[in-house]
Amino acid sequence: MADIINAKNLVLSYDTPVIKGASFCVKSNDFIVITGESGSGKSTLIKSFYGGIKVDSGELDVCFYDMASPTSRDLKELRQKIGIVFQDYRLINEWTIEKNVMLPLLIQGHNKTMCKKQSENLLNFVKLGHKIGRYPLELSGGEQQRVAVARAMAHNPQLLLCDEPTGNLDEVSSNMVWDFLRSAKELWGACVIVVTHRAPSTLKFDFRHFEIKEGKVIEGL
Length: 221
What we know:
Distance between the termini: 20 Å
Shape: globular
Strand order of the largest sheet: 6-7-8-3-9-10
Radius of gyration: 17 Å
Strand content: 25-35%
Mean pLDDT: 93
Structural class: alpha/beta
Number of strands: 10
Helix content: 25-40%
């Protein structure tokens, strides 16, 4: 499998360096779990994958785009190949969950019939088809996060980035989200990268574990 992310001596900073000369690669069929202490740079690293933070120095290629010096066109094209799941859901509260899931497809200009069908299929998959006409604030936190996962998968991304996707959820909801993320890899063929404080001991599938320590990205055994 080809590398979907390749980093060499990567440095990322805010006021001071956070990621300090990290080198690693991610294959297109990987499921990656990234852990580290609070403030270690987990979210900073994942932001660099979609251009949410600039590369200070070193090399970073994501989906064959050079993130050290991306053009605005590069970023637009790259983000059409990426799905993102945030800890705080970031759903549009004034829209039904059906329309929220349709959003990536609407941005890409797909016809409404196709958008509605894909949204319906994904909401059924995350076990929310019976609530298709509801609004986000009518759902529990776990249900909102399942909508967010469905939205992130709507356009069949090559790369699914998840920043603390279960941080606000109870154990039952958290386990459901992990199951859906596994399906994103196994059924849809996406490379999945999850940032979390701790990888659950209950995961029943193979994954690669990266830990951020003192600005380095270290792969665990």
